[in-house]
Design goal:
The chain has helices spanning about 10-25, 30-40, 60-95. With about 100 residues, the chain is mostly helical. Helix 1 crosses helix 2. The termini are far apart.
């Protein structure tokens, strides 16, 4: 992506940009980029945000996927040993 500096922005334009940024909860930069993109008929929604790992699907080799699965499994087992198992036995002892 290109970096640009814009000079001599009229005060009313800067105030409008600041107001829109506050209304949308975006940065001034993101608001300016969206306004420029909209003026050219483009829709700019900022960087894509993911709620999962779907952007990685199909990008790992089988070997990498197996290695990552093993790491997750080992981590889960360690969390059980470190966090839940002592709590469970303490609860049983209290009975």
């Amino acid at each position: 992506m290109k970096t640009m500096t814009i000079r001599n922005i009229p005060d009313d334009v800067a105030a409008g940009l600041a107001a829109r940024a506050r209304e949308t909860g975006r940065s001034m930069n993101a608001t300016a980029v969206a306004a420029l993109a909209d003026s050219f008929g483009e829709k700019h929604h900022g960087p894509k945000k993911y709620a999962d790992f779907s952007q990685f699907v199909g990008t790992w080799s089988d070997e990498e996927a197996d290695r990552i699965s093993k790491i997750i499994e080992e981590s889960s087992e360690q969390i059980w040993v470190d966090e839940y198992k002592p709590w469970l036995y303490a609860a049983e002892d209290a009975e």
